[in-house]
Specification:
InterPro entries: G_crystallin-like. Keywords: Membrane, Transmembrane, Transmembrane helix. The protein is built from two helices and 13 strands; from the N terminus they run αββαβββββββββββ. With 201 residues, it is mainly β. The chain folds into two domains: 83 residues, Crystallins (Gamma-B Crystallin, domain 1), CATH 2.60.20.10; 82 residues, Crystallins (Gamma-B Crystallin, domain 1), CATH 2.60.20. It is elongated, with a radius of gyration of 18 Å. Bound molecules: 2-acetamido-2-deoxy-beta-D-glucopyranose (3 copies). One 2-acetamido-2-deoxy-beta-D-glucopyranose binds next to strand 4.
């Protein structure tokens, strides 16, 4: 038990320094043991076909690479019940589950978590869901960006540092985000963020 614990810690630290690359993928299976009919997703989907929706309801097991979220409505709009939400950014994880109402689906952020970027989500007002709705990905190569909306959630990848500003055009009070994990999420409460710039000074 203890040796397994130490092994897990060692892997965890190894991943942080290695900055693993992967391609997000989600496979649903009709059988309980990752068998039967299967459907595989590897792109963001603002609406699923009726057949795919039905498969989400009837699937009994699934395997995932990366962080995938399902939404009960099209265009990544959350609903009131428990959404499909599965996460392994360092490899493949499999679960037995099913009965998820899913009309749209995406992996969160850039397709490679080693890509330095900050992603902003407008969420759903009063739903407590910070990672639904519009997704704007600002790559480190773009250096800076102003948002058209006040994000409810931010997601930082590639262990990149970002300064977030209260107003557009990099003005007003600011705060610095220094990630401690390859996918680093910030749920924004009362602090408004309308622009971001790479790095912290
Ligand atoms: C995530 O993937 C890695 C590599 O495939 C695996 O070793 C690990 O057990 C997975 N984590 C979970 C929580 O399943
Ligand atoms: C982020 O900030 C920390 C703390 O100042 C620093 O140690 C680290 O090198 C920075 N990372 C990058 C990619 O600049
Ligand atoms: C931000 O800068 C742009 C271009 O310089 C300018 O048109 C715009 O009015 C500025 N917005 C704010 C809120 O300062």
């Amino acid at each position: 038990m203890l040796s397994r614990y130490i092994f897990t810690i060692a892997i965890f630290h190894g991943l942080i320094s290695l900055c693993m690359s992967y391609f997000p993928q989600l496979t649903l299976y009709s059988g309980h043991n990752y068998d039967g009919d299967r459907v595989t997703f590897s792109t963001k989907r603002s609406s699923l076909t009726p057949l795919e929706e039905e498969f989400f309801r009837s699937a009994r097991s699934y395997c995932v690479t990366g962080w995938w979220r399902g939404y009960e409505n099209a265009n990544f709009v959350a609903g009131s019940s428990n959404p499909f939400n599965a996460n392994n950014v360092s490899g493949i994880s499999c679960w037995r589950n099913g009965d998820k109402i899913t009309k749209s689906l995406r992996f969160m952020g850039p397709s490679d978590t080693s890509t330095s970027a900050i992603s902003a989500y407008n969420g759903v007002p009063n739903s407590g869901d910070h990672y639904s709705g519009i997704e704007v990905i600002v790559l480190a190569t773009e250096y800076e960006a102003s948002f058209d909306f006040a994000p409810s959630g931010l997601l930082i990848t590639g262990m990149s540092n970002w300064t977030a500003f209260y107003e557009r055009n990099f003005t007003g009070p600011s705060t610095c985000f220094i990630p401690t994990s390859e996918i680093y999420t910030v749920s924004l409460g009362t602090f408004q963020v309308l622009s971001v710039r790479l790095g912290c000074n």
